[in-house]
Amino acid sequence: MAKIFPFKAVRPTRDKVSLVASRSYQSYTPAQRDSRMDYNPYSFLHIVNPGYKYQKEISGEERYKLVRNRYLEFKEDEIFKQDENKCYYVYKIVNREHQSFCGIIAAASAQDYENDVIKKHEDTLQHRETTFKEYLKTAGFNAEPVLLTYPDNDTIAQIISKTIAHRAEYEFTTTYRDTHYLWKIEDPTIIDQIQDEFSKIETIYIADGHHRSASSYLLAKDLKKNNPDHHGDEAYNYFMCYLIPESNLRIYEFNRLVKDLNGLSKEEFLIRLDEWFRIENRGIEVYRPSKPHHFSMYLDGEFYSLYLRKTKYEFTDALDELDAQILYKTVLKPILGIQDLRTDTRIEYSHGKNDIISVKSKVDDNEYKVGFGLFPASVVQMKKIADQGLKMPPKSTYIEPKLRSGVTIYEF
Question: In this structure, are strands 100-109 and 238-245 parallel, antiparallel, or unpaired?
Fold first, then answer.
């Protein structure tokens, strides 16, 4: 049964939230980061990139300590304030495509992560887990919630609907033309009702944030081990999450780009593909796959449709049904010689929001030799893979919504 708790968030004041909120650090180019920090002293980027103050790149433990210092400065300057009462936070995003996402920011249990109540569908890299754990330990806070999804629940939906009928605590629009809203739920009766509803849910799933949740779990283990007075309700036993119903989740594909044909000529490559796929040359017509197990390919100025030969390919488990895995097992590994998707520099990924035209452009510009378009995975597929204890290949899903950093902060 899922343990989902309210917490006292540290938040920007209402007048500064639009200035503080930022996208994830990695999503900016260095020039974009510098531009935002040059002209906005309130940006959360000043906290996560503390070396900017000294015009120096700083890493490791030294950086983590400076992140902590910048964070405390924001609190001392009353840019951030902590709520007096434990709350749930309803967070809504309406993006520029007029898609709406609405869920609850709360604290999830590290023990639930350990006990597989919170299920995973992606592999994580140990060095990234450890690095982020050390960052969390030194900084003492987390400002980017893990995206979790749960089965649609009428009671929770009704509570959210009633909550958003009132004036929002925050309402701001970003330069990306996404509008963000936040409401506090601090009525003890409603808090108990929400907590009770989540306690009835046997399994929730990580949609996005596998490394963040794994790092938070490792941090909880470390701090528990080193605390002789551990009693179980310390803040480090939980991590911040954004819970959204399954029906409100949006999954896009990650398309693949490869730099060469592994020494094969175009004709040799197509012959090798024919073993696994029925191939049709679509010419210059832009082609996108319309259902699972169909792929598009862009090669030498032309699009191709690739239909999997199901009499040839064997489906043994939920992972084998995933298109990203099919492409890896039939093309990327045996034909193109890409063994490790995490480390091979010959492969690159382009998420579906960039569209197949982005893949075409990069091949036309000779950055890559061939591009593959995939059909997006479904929530059902993601859950089946997690339920069977399997892990998707890297970059199998691009999931929305994406929250801004620094809007709600969880202190350990």
Answer: antiparallel
